[in-house]
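Forum > Structural Biology > Help requests

Title: Can anyone predict the 3D structure of Lipoprotein?

Hi all, first post here. I have the sequence for Lipoprotein but no way to get a structure on my laptop. I'd be grateful if someone could post the structure tokens.
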Amino acid sequence: MRFLKFIRCFVLLALILGGCSEKEKALRVGVTAGPHAIIMEEVKRLAIAEGLLIQIVEFNDFNLPNAALAQGDLDINIYQHRPFLEEQILNRGYDLKIIGNAVIMPLGLYSKKLKNFSSINSHFIKPAEKIAIPNDPTNEGRALKLLESANLIKLKPSPNPTPLDIIDNPLSFEFVEVEAPQLARVLEDVSLAVINTDWVVLSGMDPRTALFKEDAPQEFINVIVVKNGDQTRSEIARFLKIYQSETVRKFIDEKFLGTVQAAW
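Reply #1:
Sure, ran it for you. Structure tokens for Lipoprotein below:
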């Protein structure tokens, strides 16, 4: 009887330790909430069938995923485009490496007050109306370029413009700089906002309701990033193959109907 109890305890202990071991082997992938998290759930499902475990870590901030990756709290992150990563590496000294492309999500111009783009130049917009734009350097410049392409402002030539580079503002818009995750929330308080697709989806808005969208250049493809040196790990190579599969591409196409696009 004691022998059977011993066996049961031994088996239970083995299961517990085995579970811990499996959890330790799981790849920790950091993503922002919204499309990236939705895609990662599908990748996680597919990876299980390949014997690869994934632990998804969600963030509601653009700065924390790189800090966590640099500190070794993540194995991979997927949420940012190359210019944003390069700015963080330059200013924060991170030793991070791009291993592949993920998706591209165009910025859009949104409003709760206007039904269509033509309304911007009508009597529905008064002088000195407010436009909210992201406050991080790379996405702020990207938002201003979108507004220029919509013929709402004119900018001095600059690779990464700021509001100080506006040389023509015919409707006298006032620019309000807001943290990217908060842009959808301030729509009630402004006439227009330039918002990243991931925060649009997360807020419950439909990205197809954008009044105007950028023709997103290739430099703004979101990338898959690891700590430098980890790119040779076999499990990361397996992860990349699953992520950049036709199955995941089809999932993205069907789930987001073109508002988020596979970029590999």
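The radius of gyration is 22 Å. The CA atoms of residues 40 and 69 lie 17 Å apart.
Shout if anything looks off.
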